[in-house]
Amino acid sequence: MRPLTDNPVSSPEDDTFRFGPYVDVLHNAVEQATPLPLTVGVFGSWGAGKSSFLQLWQRRFEATRTRTIWFNPWKYDRKVEVWAALLHTILSEMEQGDDTLRKKAKRLAKAATWLSVRAGLGAAAALGTGGVIKSEQVDQMLQDLAQEDSEQYRQVNRFELDFADAVRDFVGEDGRLVVFVDDLDRCTPESAMTVLESLKLFLAQSQCVFVLALDLDVLAAVATNKFDEALKGAPSDVVSGMAYLDKIVQLPFFLPDVGFDTLQEAFKPYVSELGDDPFFWDLLRRGLGVNPRRLKRYINVFNMALAVFQAHGTQALSREFRLQLAVLLIIRTRHRAFFHTLTSDPESWRRLTAFYERAQGNPTVRLEDRHLLATRLHPYVDDSALEGLLTHGGAERVQPPAAETVLSMISTLRNAAGPDEI
Protein backbone atom coordinates (compact mmCIF):
# COMPACT_ATOMS: atom_id res chain seq x y z
CA MET A 1 0.00 0.00 0.00
CA ARG A 2 1.10 3.57 -0.72
CA PRO A 3 -0.19 5.97 1.96
CA LEU A 4 -1.43 9.45 1.27
CA THR A 5 0.49 12.09 3.22
CA ASP A 6 -0.95 15.29 4.66
CA ASN A 7 1.96 17.47 3.58
CA PRO A 8 0.92 20.71 1.90
CA VAL A 9 1.89 21.11 -1.75
CA SER A 10 4.08 23.98 -2.88
CA SER A 11 4.65 23.25 -6.55
CA PRO A 12 2.11 24.06 -9.29
CA GLU A 13 2.82 20.62 -10.76
CA ASP A 14 1.41 19.04 -7.59
CA ASP A 15 -1.68 21.25 -7.44
CA THR A 16 -4.18 18.41 -7.71
CA PHE A 17 -6.85 20.55 -6.02
CA ARG A 18 -6.58 23.13 -8.84
CA PHE A 19 -6.02 26.13 -6.61
CA GLY A 20 -3.78 27.80 -9.21
CA PRO A 21 -6.34 30.13 -10.85
CA TYR A 22 -7.54 31.34 -7.44
CA VAL A 23 -3.96 31.96 -6.31
CA ASP A 24 -3.43 34.07 -9.45
CA VAL A 25 -6.53 36.19 -8.79
CA LEU A 26 -5.60 36.87 -5.18
CA HIS A 27 -1.95 37.46 -6.06
CA ASN A 28 -2.80 40.06 -8.69
CA ALA A 29 -5.15 41.88 -6.30
CA VAL A 30 -2.54 42.04 -3.54
CA GLU A 31 0.20 43.17 -5.94
CA GLN A 32 -1.86 46.25 -6.73
CA ALA A 33 -2.89 47.05 -3.16
CA THR A 34 -1.90 50.50 -1.87
CA PRO A 35 -1.42 51.92 0.63
CA LEU A 36 -0.12 49.24 2.95
CA PRO A 37 -0.36 47.45 5.33
CA LEU A 38 -3.01 45.01 4.19
CA THR A 39 -4.37 41.97 6.00
CA VAL A 40 -5.71 39.12 3.88
CA GLY A 41 -7.83 36.35 5.39
CA VAL A 42 -7.72 32.98 3.62
CA PHE A 43 -10.71 31.25 5.18
CA GLY A 44 -11.39 27.54 5.05
CA SER A 45 -12.47 24.71 7.31
CA TRP A 46 -10.19 22.13 8.90
CA GLY A 47 -8.46 20.01 6.25
CA ALA A 48 -9.66 22.12 3.30
CA GLY A 49 -6.15 22.85 1.97
CA LYS A 50 -5.29 26.27 3.46
CA SER A 51 -1.60 25.43 3.94
CA SER A 52 -1.29 24.21 0.37
CA PHE A 53 -2.97 27.35 -0.91
CA LEU A 54 -0.56 29.57 1.04
CA GLN A 55 2.51 27.64 -0.08
CA LEU A 56 1.44 27.82 -3.73
CA TRP A 57 0.98 31.56 -3.28
CA GLN A 58 4.35 31.99 -1.62
CA ARG A 59 5.89 30.18 -4.60
CA ARG A 60 4.38 32.84 -6.90
CA PHE A 61 6.40 35.51 -5.13
CA GLU A 62 9.70 33.76 -5.81
CA ALA A 63 9.79 35.22 -9.33
CA THR A 64 9.38 38.76 -7.98
CA ARG A 65 11.37 41.09 -5.73
CA THR A 66 8.79 40.73 -2.98
CA ARG A 67 10.19 39.28 0.24
CA THR A 68 8.14 36.69 2.12
CA ILE A 69 8.25 35.21 5.62
CA TRP A 70 6.41 32.11 6.86
CA PHE A 71 5.20 31.96 10.46
CA ASN A 72 3.60 28.99 12.21
CA PRO A 73 2.10 30.38 15.44
CA TRP A 74 1.06 27.02 16.87
CA LYS A 75 4.74 26.06 17.25
CA TYR A 76 5.07 28.76 19.89
CA ASP A 77 1.68 28.39 21.51
CA ARG A 78 1.87 27.74 25.28
CA LYS A 79 5.64 28.37 25.16
CA VAL A 80 5.94 32.11 24.61
CA GLU A 81 3.71 35.03 23.73
CA VAL A 82 2.77 34.20 20.15
CA TRP A 83 2.53 37.84 19.11
CA ALA A 84 6.11 38.35 20.30
CA ALA A 85 7.24 35.26 18.38
CA LEU A 86 5.68 36.73 15.24
CA LEU A 87 7.57 40.00 15.71
CA HIS A 88 10.84 38.25 16.41
CA THR A 89 10.44 35.94 13.40
CA ILE A 90 10.22 39.02 11.18
CA LEU A 91 13.04 40.82 12.96
CA SER A 92 15.37 37.82 12.80
CA GLU A 93 15.02 37.88 9.00
CA MET A 94 15.89 41.58 9.01
CA GLU A 95 19.01 40.84 11.03
CA GLN A 96 20.44 39.21 7.91
CA GLY A 97 20.65 42.68 6.28
CA ASP A 98 23.35 45.32 6.51
CA ASP A 99 24.77 46.72 9.75
CA THR A 100 22.27 49.57 9.95
CA LEU A 101 19.28 47.26 9.51
CA ARG A 102 20.77 44.75 11.93
CA LYS A 103 21.06 47.40 14.62
CA LYS A 104 17.47 48.49 14.06
CA ALA A 105 16.24 44.89 14.23
CA LYS A 106 18.10 44.27 17.49
CA ARG A 107 16.75 47.45 19.05
CA LEU A 108 13.20 46.52 18.04
CA ALA A 109 13.72 42.96 19.28
CA LYS A 110 14.85 44.33 22.63
CA ALA A 111 11.70 46.45 22.88
CA ALA A 112 9.49 43.47 21.98
CA THR A 113 11.27 41.27 24.50
CA TRP A 114 10.85 43.96 27.15
CA LEU A 115 7.11 43.79 26.56
CA SER A 116 7.23 40.00 26.95
CA VAL A 117 9.20 40.29 30.17
CA ARG A 118 6.74 42.84 31.48
CA ALA A 119 4.00 40.32 30.72
CA GLY A 120 5.69 37.99 33.22
CA LEU A 121 7.51 35.61 30.93
CA GLY A 122 10.98 36.12 32.41
CA ALA A 123 13.81 34.18 30.79
CA ALA A 124 11.33 32.18 28.71
CA ALA A 125 10.92 35.26 26.52
CA ALA A 126 14.25 34.47 24.88
CA LEU A 127 12.69 31.44 23.22
CA GLY A 128 10.61 33.69 21.01
CA THR A 129 13.40 36.01 19.90
CA GLY A 130 14.81 33.87 17.12
CA GLY A 131 18.26 34.23 18.71
CA VAL A 132 18.33 38.03 18.49
CA ILE A 133 18.11 38.31 22.29
CA LYS A 134 19.92 35.56 24.23
CA SER A 135 18.62 34.03 27.45
CA GLU A 136 21.42 35.53 29.55
CA GLN A 137 20.53 38.94 28.13
CA VAL A 138 16.94 38.53 29.25
CA ASP A 139 18.10 37.86 32.82
CA GLN A 140 20.18 41.03 32.73
CA MET A 141 17.20 42.95 31.32
CA LEU A 142 15.13 41.93 34.33
CA GLN A 143 17.73 43.53 36.59
CA ASP A 144 17.94 46.66 34.47
CA LEU A 145 14.22 47.24 34.06
CA ALA A 146 13.94 49.65 36.97
CA GLN A 147 16.72 51.80 35.55
CA GLU A 148 15.68 51.57 31.91
CA ASP A 149 11.90 51.73 32.10
CA SER A 150 11.64 55.27 30.79
CA GLU A 151 13.86 54.52 27.79
CA GLN A 152 12.03 51.26 27.06
CA TYR A 153 8.67 52.95 27.26
CA ARG A 154 9.89 55.47 24.72
CA GLN A 155 11.00 52.66 22.39
CA VAL A 156 7.70 50.85 22.80
CA ASN A 157 5.76 54.00 22.08
CA ARG A 158 7.79 54.44 18.89
CA PHE A 159 7.74 50.73 18.02
CA GLU A 160 5.14 51.07 15.28
CA LEU A 161 7.04 53.82 13.44
CA ASP A 162 10.46 52.25 14.02
CA PHE A 163 9.19 48.90 12.74
CA ALA A 164 7.80 50.57 9.63
CA ASP A 165 11.17 52.25 9.07
CA ALA A 166 13.00 48.91 9.41
CA VAL A 167 10.63 47.20 6.98
CA ARG A 168 11.21 50.01 4.47
CA ASP A 169 14.98 49.47 4.74
CA PHE A 170 14.43 45.71 4.35
CA VAL A 171 12.22 45.76 1.24
CA GLY A 172 13.04 49.11 -0.35
CA GLU A 173 11.03 52.28 -0.75
CA ASP A 174 8.46 50.71 -3.09
CA GLY A 175 8.71 47.13 -1.88
CA ARG A 176 6.51 45.08 0.37
CA LEU A 177 6.94 42.26 2.85
CA VAL A 178 4.41 39.43 2.72
CA VAL A 179 4.03 37.53 6.00
CA PHE A 180 2.17 34.22 5.79
CA VAL A 181 0.61 33.20 9.13
CA ASP A 182 -0.60 29.61 8.89
CA ASP A 183 -2.70 27.53 11.28
CA LEU A 184 -3.67 30.45 13.49
CA ASP A 185 -6.87 28.64 14.48
CA ARG A 186 -4.80 25.77 15.94
CA CYS A 187 -3.58 28.06 18.72
CA THR A 188 -5.33 28.59 22.00
CA PRO A 189 -8.06 31.23 21.69
CA GLU A 190 -6.07 33.71 23.78
CA SER A 191 -2.96 33.35 21.62
CA ALA A 192 -4.91 33.68 18.38
CA MET A 193 -6.52 36.88 19.59
CA THR A 194 -3.21 38.45 20.66
CA VAL A 195 -1.75 37.83 17.21
CA LEU A 196 -4.72 39.56 15.58
CA GLU A 197 -4.49 42.47 17.99
CA SER A 198 -0.73 42.86 17.45
CA LEU A 199 -1.34 43.51 13.75
CA LYS A 200 -3.21 46.65 14.75
CA LEU A 201 -1.13 47.67 17.77
CA PHE A 202 2.42 47.28 16.45
CA LEU A 203 2.44 46.81 12.68
CA ALA A 204 -0.21 49.17 11.35
CA GLN A 205 2.23 51.56 9.63
CA SER A 206 4.44 49.06 7.80
CA GLN A 207 4.80 48.06 4.16
CA CYS A 208 3.49 44.61 4.98
CA VAL A 209 0.86 42.24 3.67
CA PHE A 210 -0.25 39.80 6.36
CA VAL A 211 -1.89 36.64 5.05
CA LEU A 212 -3.83 34.78 7.75
CA ALA A 213 -5.01 31.22 7.10
CA LEU A 214 -7.80 30.31 9.49
CA ASP A 215 -11.25 28.86 10.01
CA LEU A 216 -13.50 31.89 10.05
CA ASP A 217 -16.18 30.32 12.23
CA VAL A 218 -13.65 29.24 14.86
CA LEU A 219 -12.02 32.67 15.16
CA ALA A 220 -15.35 34.49 15.06
CA ALA A 221 -16.56 32.36 17.97
CA VAL A 222 -13.35 33.08 19.89
CA ALA A 223 -13.74 36.82 19.33
CA THR A 224 -17.39 36.71 20.37
CA ASN A 225 -16.52 34.93 23.61
CA LYS A 226 -13.68 37.37 24.33
CA PHE A 227 -15.85 40.47 24.10
CA ASP A 228 -19.20 39.03 25.13
CA GLU A 229 -19.03 40.17 28.77
CA ALA A 230 -17.47 43.57 28.04
CA LEU A 231 -20.07 44.42 25.41
CA LYS A 232 -23.12 42.94 27.08
CA GLY A 233 -26.19 44.90 26.03
CA ALA A 234 -24.57 46.33 22.91
CA PRO A 235 -26.19 45.78 19.48
CA SER A 236 -25.61 42.30 18.06
CA ASP A 237 -23.60 43.61 15.11
CA VAL A 238 -21.15 45.20 17.56
CA VAL A 239 -20.81 42.16 19.80
CA SER A 240 -20.39 39.75 16.91
CA GLY A 241 -16.95 38.16 16.55
CA MET A 242 -17.45 38.44 12.81
CA ALA A 243 -17.68 42.22 13.16
CA TYR A 244 -14.39 42.20 15.06
CA LEU A 245 -12.64 40.22 12.33
CA ASP A 246 -14.00 42.65 9.75
CA LYS A 247 -11.88 45.33 11.43
CA ILE A 248 -8.75 43.17 11.22
CA VAL A 249 -9.11 41.61 7.75
CA GLN A 250 -9.48 44.00 4.84
CA LEU A 251 -9.42 41.40 2.04
CA PRO A 252 -11.31 38.19 2.83
CA PHE A 253 -10.90 35.20 0.53
CA PHE A 254 -12.87 32.03 1.02
CA LEU A 255 -11.06 28.93 -0.12
CA PRO A 256 -12.97 27.32 -3.01
CA ASP A 257 -14.56 23.98 -2.30
CA VAL A 258 -12.62 21.16 -3.89
CA GLY A 259 -15.10 19.14 -5.93
CA PHE A 260 -15.46 15.49 -5.06
CA ASP A 261 -14.64 14.50 -8.63
CA THR A 262 -11.32 16.34 -8.28
CA LEU A 263 -10.55 14.52 -5.04
CA GLN A 264 -11.51 11.19 -6.60
CA GLU A 265 -9.15 11.80 -9.51
CA ALA A 266 -6.32 12.76 -7.15
CA PHE A 267 -6.79 9.88 -4.67
CA LYS A 268 -7.86 7.06 -6.98
CA PRO A 269 -4.31 5.76 -7.58
CA TYR A 270 -3.94 5.22 -3.84
CA VAL A 271 -7.00 3.02 -3.34
CA SER A 272 -6.48 -0.75 -3.23
CA GLU A 273 -8.64 -2.66 -5.75
CA LEU A 274 -11.70 -0.37 -5.59
CA GLY A 275 -10.06 2.69 -7.16
CA ASP A 276 -12.07 2.23 -10.37
CA ASP A 277 -15.30 1.18 -8.67
CA PRO A 278 -17.95 3.95 -9.03
CA PHE A 279 -20.07 2.48 -6.23
CA PHE A 280 -17.17 2.78 -3.77
CA TRP A 281 -16.69 6.46 -4.58
CA ASP A 282 -20.44 7.07 -4.34
CA LEU A 283 -20.31 5.68 -0.80
CA LEU A 284 -17.47 8.02 0.11
CA ARG A 285 -19.20 11.01 -1.45
CA ARG A 286 -22.36 10.29 0.55
CA GLY A 287 -20.67 9.28 3.78
CA LEU A 288 -17.62 11.55 4.06
CA GLY A 289 -18.26 14.66 1.98
CA VAL A 290 -15.51 16.65 0.29
CA ASN A 291 -13.00 17.36 3.07
CA PRO A 292 -9.56 16.40 1.62
CA ARG A 293 -7.91 15.60 4.96
CA ARG A 294 -10.78 13.40 6.07
CA LEU A 295 -10.71 11.48 2.80
CA LYS A 296 -6.93 11.02 2.96
CA ARG A 297 -7.11 9.57 6.45
CA TYR A 298 -10.02 7.34 5.50
CA ILE A 299 -8.22 5.89 2.47
CA ASN A 300 -5.05 5.24 4.48
CA VAL A 301 -6.96 3.39 7.21
CA PHE A 302 -9.03 1.47 4.64
CA ASN A 303 -5.91 0.31 2.79
CA MET A 304 -4.18 -0.67 6.02
CA ALA A 305 -7.18 -2.70 7.18
CA LEU A 306 -7.35 -4.51 3.83
CA ALA A 307 -3.62 -5.24 4.01
CA VAL A 308 -4.06 -6.77 7.48
CA PHE A 309 -6.89 -9.01 6.26
CA GLN A 310 -4.86 -10.09 3.24
CA ALA A 311 -1.83 -10.88 5.40
CA HIS A 312 -3.86 -13.21 7.62
CA GLY A 313 -6.14 -14.75 5.00
CA THR A 314 -5.73 -17.54 2.50
CA GLN A 315 -8.40 -16.40 0.05
CA ALA A 316 -8.76 -13.28 -2.03
CA LEU A 317 -11.10 -10.67 -0.57
CA SER A 318 -14.35 -10.29 -2.50
CA ARG A 319 -15.72 -6.98 -3.76
CA GLU A 320 -18.66 -7.36 -1.37
CA PHE A 321 -16.30 -7.79 1.61
CA ARG A 322 -14.30 -4.70 0.61
CA LEU A 323 -17.46 -2.61 0.29
CA GLN A 324 -18.75 -3.86 3.64
CA LEU A 325 -15.47 -2.81 5.22
CA ALA A 326 -15.73 0.56 3.45
CA VAL A 327 -19.21 1.13 4.92
CA LEU A 328 -18.10 0.08 8.40
CA LEU A 329 -15.19 2.50 8.28
CA ILE A 330 -17.55 5.32 7.27
CA ILE A 331 -19.72 4.38 10.24
CA ARG A 332 -16.68 4.53 12.50
CA THR A 333 -15.66 7.91 11.06
CA ARG A 334 -19.01 9.70 10.95
CA HIS A 335 -21.46 7.71 13.11
CA ARG A 336 -19.43 6.88 16.19
CA ALA A 337 -22.36 6.14 18.48
CA PHE A 338 -23.70 3.48 16.11
CA PHE A 339 -20.20 2.05 15.71
CA HIS A 340 -20.02 1.57 19.48
CA THR A 341 -23.40 -0.14 19.33
CA LEU A 342 -22.02 -2.57 16.75
CA THR A 343 -19.11 -3.50 19.01
CA SER A 344 -21.53 -5.03 21.50
CA ASP A 345 -24.37 -5.96 19.14
CA PRO A 346 -23.05 -6.62 15.61
CA GLU A 347 -26.52 -7.79 14.50
CA SER A 348 -27.70 -4.19 14.83
CA TRP A 349 -26.42 -3.47 11.31
CA ARG A 350 -28.76 -6.05 9.79
CA ARG A 351 -31.72 -5.13 12.00
CA LEU A 352 -31.47 -1.39 11.44
CA THR A 353 -31.02 -1.80 7.67
CA ALA A 354 -34.13 -3.98 7.51
CA PHE A 355 -36.09 -1.35 9.42
CA TYR A 356 -34.92 1.43 7.10
CA GLU A 357 -35.97 -0.58 4.06
CA ARG A 358 -39.47 -1.18 5.43
CA ALA A 359 -39.87 2.44 6.53
CA GLN A 360 -38.64 4.21 3.41
CA GLY A 361 -41.49 6.24 1.98
CA ASN A 362 -43.87 4.93 4.63
CA PRO A 363 -44.16 7.18 7.72
CA THR A 364 -46.70 4.83 9.30
CA VAL A 365 -44.29 1.91 9.26
CA ARG A 366 -41.51 4.13 10.60
CA LEU A 367 -43.70 5.15 13.53
CA GLU A 368 -45.28 1.78 14.30
CA ASP A 369 -42.29 -0.53 13.74
CA ARG A 370 -39.80 1.30 15.87
CA HIS A 371 -41.04 -0.56 18.93
CA LEU A 372 -39.83 -3.76 17.24
CA LEU A 373 -36.28 -2.49 17.49
CA ALA A 374 -34.12 -2.78 20.59
CA THR A 375 -34.19 0.38 22.68
CA ARG A 376 -30.51 1.05 21.94
CA LEU A 377 -31.42 1.44 18.25
CA HIS A 378 -34.15 4.05 18.78
CA PRO A 379 -31.73 7.03 18.49
CA TYR A 380 -30.99 5.98 14.89
CA VAL A 381 -34.56 5.60 13.65
CA ASP A 382 -34.66 9.13 12.24
CA ASP A 383 -30.97 9.47 11.38
CA SER A 384 -31.28 10.29 7.68
CA ALA A 385 -27.51 10.30 7.06
CA LEU A 386 -27.05 6.81 8.52
CA GLU A 387 -30.14 5.58 6.71
CA GLY A 388 -28.85 6.95 3.42
CA LEU A 389 -25.54 5.16 3.93
CA LEU A 390 -26.98 1.75 4.87
CA THR A 391 -29.56 1.74 2.07
CA HIS A 392 -27.48 3.44 -0.64
CA GLY A 393 -27.85 1.71 -3.98
CA GLY A 394 -31.32 0.28 -3.41
CA ALA A 395 -31.34 -3.30 -4.62
CA GLU A 396 -27.59 -3.05 -5.24
CA ARG A 397 -26.85 -1.81 -1.74
CA VAL A 398 -24.11 -3.30 0.41
CA GLN A 399 -25.54 -6.27 2.31
CA PRO A 400 -24.91 -6.29 6.08
CA PRO A 401 -22.19 -8.84 6.90
CA ALA A 402 -22.62 -11.67 9.39
CA ALA A 403 -22.15 -10.78 13.05
CA GLU A 404 -18.81 -12.56 13.33
CA THR A 405 -17.56 -10.73 10.23
CA VAL A 406 -18.57 -7.39 11.72
CA LEU A 407 -16.61 -8.15 14.89
CA SER A 408 -13.58 -9.28 12.87
CA MET A 409 -13.69 -6.05 10.85
CA ILE A 410 -14.00 -3.96 14.02
CA SER A 411 -10.95 -5.67 15.50
CA THR A 412 -8.94 -5.04 12.36
CA LEU A 413 -10.00 -1.38 12.19
CA ARG A 414 -8.80 -0.94 15.75
CA ASN A 415 -5.40 -2.27 14.68
CA ALA A 416 -5.32 0.07 11.68
CA ALA A 417 -6.82 3.23 13.18
CA GLY A 418 -6.33 2.96 16.93
CA PRO A 419 -8.86 2.89 19.80
CA ASP A 420 -12.50 3.66 19.01
CA GLU A 421 -12.46 6.70 21.31
CA ILE A 422 -9.93 8.63 19.21
UniProtKB/TrEMBL annotation:
- Which Pfam families does its entry note? KAP_NTPase
Which Gene3D superfamilies does this entry report, sorted A to Z?
Answer: P-loop containing nucleotide triphosphate hydrolases (3.40.50.300)
Residue stretches making up the KAP NTPase domain: 21-304
Give the source's domain of life in one word: Bacteria
**What name is this protein filed under?**
P-loop NTPase fold protein
What is the scientific name of the source organism?
Answer: Streptomyces heilongjiangensis
